[in-house]
């Protein structure tokens, strides 16, 4: 301490004070703070408490030198800080990045020969474009690593048919808005708000006239300083001309309040003349597939691809369309030859040095097409979730989901794309995956041509018209119902050797339904049932046990073998049933020794790529035993490699009988001689139902081999009772299922579109097939809006001055009263009590065009196709010539505006002169009021008399007694004082206690009471101005309706979109302005279950786990089947499962809060953990044979789930890379490698 350099201190500043000790005057000097008051009077210790004490030296050392030593000189910056002098580089100030090239060299060639004519330098107009800021095809290509699948940071290419707004269009919009109304044309509702400000003036005051913007400019141009040369009359004339300018439409405060059109029952003026409708452009062009093509080879002398057979007529017409660069839609039966069109498109792309993409609904079909097209063309590639082969090929085979991802991610493959072939388009009806087809069709760029291949569907024109309209190109539709091999349909009732030939023709090769064959089958079934009862008692042989089914199969196979009707495909709608049927045929052997040897050799060759343990799997050994006897099984539970072996052996004719599920009908062209239906009922995931015509035709179409069979044979087994004739007729002769939109909103779609400012989700919804019918007339609606806007401007202002000051409020009150009465009356007549009251003899009141409160009596109640009809006798005036006057529209020249006496229940109508009657057929909506009065009428005699009076011979005869009695009673009621004819109260008399009806009754009373307070009905100008106001209101209502139809508010999915956007905002995937945030960009990397995967990644739930555990937990994303085995999980996995369910529940609750309908239980239940243990053990290296002991799930389903799990792992890896989680990224790579082994990822036989 002695070495410290302490500065000198003034003695007066030392911390010293004087302390008086005791009372004897003793003073002491203490080290304490001076007296704060600056007084020199000594401090006293007594009796004010204990005296102060001196601070301990150790405490001072700790506080001053240890706790805060920063003031010591050893911590001076000169002792610890070093400075590095900065070297000067003046030359860096002159550095400049090289700008992008503004020009490029263009080769000029002869279009016919390709000869180089010269080289010219051309300007690059868009040198600043990139995949991250432009949707143009002119942007430069991305890096080679993104050339195939693109990147989620890329913009998609601009969708075809969706026009970008040009400068001319923007200018045109400005010109249309030249006459801007600063009071009415300004928006009052901010975007996203439900209601805006209401600037209407109270008291019904008429707003001032329109001041067009153009007139302001004209005034400014004419304005001069100094004395005006115009007199007062000229100024007034100009003001009058300005006031007569057209008036623009007043906007509604919210589009949600539009769309309800009120039709008044009172004195409707003639509507404005309808505009001349613009001719609608025809986008779908049907071609006659029956008319021959005479000059085919003259038009196309050099075919791009020559088939070894003569093309059918529909194929030739399709080839002509392809040569012309047109899009086509081919609808034909299975095995009709649709693939020929696809092959020609591929050949054209090879010739043009462009690209073709062939899409299929399932991965297995993609593999099969890859093999077939590669054999034919060679330059063919394959892109699936786990395989990428020859991605630079001219023709690429892929699933529709892969193409959708490429379109959203801006793949450079799209640049060179000429054709996209959609196979099995009728798969768009699939509830889960149908939306993918619509997304792809909407997002395809303009330069891409479309080929649609589908089974026969009834609405091909409608579907093609939708595609043509959204892409703004013609779609040529070629439909054919012709089969290359006609089909004959049979009922089979045999079940033994004696009855094995009981085939009954149900539909012949010409398509005629044979009722004779049906009744013969029913009779044969009854005969056998009666014999069974006599032999074995009353027990009925229905139910079809295992022994009964085995007998049926044995007798059927034996009969088909004798008829040379093999091979046969048996469609069975249950995987378990397929296995049972095949296993039951232990005594059946359909192969020769040579065929057995060939099957054994081929089987061994195909399975040689498997490990030794995998070759000994029970399913592998069982399948070999079946195949060597000519029996095959094909369903999703079979291992993929075994399914491919079965398919190839079937195509070679070595499989004689194949038990398959419905998916086999969606494969490549593998026809059989015969098709058998084990049943015509299937479970569709909800309940059991009969096959639809489309499903039956698709599967039955596998019967008949072109060039080998004259007819194909289709057999329906009748194991128990014969199906009903009506069900069979509907299934076989009915129309196939129409193509229906399955468009739905997904978070992935929303986020992919939101990240591109130029694309809107609303535009995607507008262009969907679901909105096709409503958007079809959008152009006509826009034209109609222009005409009505002009009509509205020509009407001029309504004169509401003076005694008509309250006309506007009166009109609003009348319209509200009429609407409320109409709604109330509709509810009344549709209620049970109301329908009981509307019986014969009930006195009712109707409101005609010219006469209010016309009484009538119901004579008859009947029903047509849609409504109940009430035949009613009403009073009317009798003309001078004795003819009956009408109470309907058009018979009276002067119409009456509704006055309070007409609207309120006063004196009912009674003819002024001679009284006559009229019979009207009324619907419930035309009845104004039910009264409490009924008459005893002879309705039949009244109706007969009315019919008799229509005969010319009896036309002048007086009415009969029954009619006279009714008319006299109605006249008597009409003569009663006002209010005597009381109406039935819906609440008190009819006992209708619904809140809506009670409020309507109260509202009617309030409105009726307000009518007496208006003065405008007393004005002599009331009628004319009222009708003008009504006509103006009708035009405005029609304009509002049309604007609603052409706006986004009319979209059926808009409420759900707003709900999903709210979910994304709450979860911070997008901000309040709709910009995609980090979580949203992560979700774009995920192909399915994007919200849950994103939350798992960003919540850090996966990072602490090892790769095996992560793979096991992610299996819940891909496993959708039911299992009875409860998985045995480790504690870590149990915690992980709990965490996943908690996150799923949190997401579900957020969705429910935002209004989405899916329940929390359903959302959480979609994540099933039945394969968690299986995947965990598989990732740890357990052999597949041991894996099968852990679960009851079939082998094929396990393989499929693990393959899809690999795609999920890659999605999570991409998400982890985006957020910078290197640890999770490495773990996902490891997890993917752990599960990709052995039989689960054995290479496809079609690709190797």
Automatic annotation (TrEMBL):
Top-rank lineage group of the source organism: Eukaryota
Comp. bias intervals (Pro residues): 268-277
Compartments reported by the entry: Cytoplasm
Domain Helicase C-terminal: 559-754
Biased amino acid composition, Low complexity: 247-257
GO function terms (MF aspect): ATP binding; hydrolase activity; RNA binding; RNA helicase activity
Region of interest (Disordered), residue spans: 130-151, 224-281
Catalytic function, reaction form: ATP + H2O = ADP + phosphate + H(+)
Any one of the GO BP annotations: nuclear-transcribed mRNA catabolic process, 3'-5' exonucleolytic nonsense-mediated decay
Domain Helicase ATP-binding, first and last residues per copy: 319-475
Biased composition (Basic and acidic residues): 235-245
Cellular component aspect of the GO annotation: Ski complex
Residue runs in coiled coils: none
Keyword set, alphabetical order: ATP-binding, Cytoplasm, Helicase, Hydrolase, Nucleotide-binding, RNA-binding
Protein name per its UniProtKB record: Helicase SKI2W
Organism annotation: Eleutherodactylus coqui (Puerto Rican coqui)
